[in-house]
Amino acid sequence: MNSPRPRFIADCMLGKLARWLRILGYDAAYERRISDDDLLARARSEGRILLTRDTRLVQRRRMPPHLLVASQEPADQIRQAMEAFHLKVDRSAILSRCLICNEPTAKVSRDEVRDLVPPYVFRTQRRFARCGSCGRIYWRATHVTGILGRLDEAAGEAPPRAERAAP
Question: Could you say which of 8, 117, 121, 141 has the lowest number of CB atoms within 10 Å?
């Protein structure tokens, strides 16, 4: 039986990490303005793992499960989170959550998005998903190849981009 996927909450210094976790399909809450007390309370009440760079915060009593993120660099941050929580790049989960509001996306028909996406996108793409909360539309175009390359690199499954580009 599979264990449940971890749910995260990132402090105000880790918005990019939260976004990358969402790209991977993980529930990653993030608010730019939230007090430390509210952040901890939300992590506890929602059963989320707190992601922080704040060394003072992790010294508090009754800390929820957490990860003290070492680097300021997003690639290093995602690598650390992937290693710490044994996260895998599940290609089927990519873009299954809204990058803006963190809600799951749902498949929609092409006809439903005809007037909501650029004409070229409508002509060239066959599958679309929409966030049920904010309405943002997602599709798997060439940008997904770049996303997967960066995630594979972070997971240690691909050479760094500079090496891949070398002749």
Answer: 141
Number of neighbours of residue 86 by Cβ within 10 angstroms: 8
Report whether 28 contacts 18 (CB < 8 A). Answer: yes
Residues 72, 93 contacting (CB under 8 angstroms): no
Report pLDDT digits (tens) over 19-51: 999 999 999 999 989 999 999 999 999 999 999
91's tokens: 């290609």
How far apart are the two ends of the chain, measured CA to CA in Å? 45
Alpha-helix residue ranges (DSSP H) falling in the chain: 15-23, 36-46, 74-85, 110-113, 119-124, 143-154, 161-165
pTM above 0.70, yes or no: yes
Amino acid at 40: L
Model confidence over 130-150: pLDDT tens digits? 999 999 999 987 777 777 777
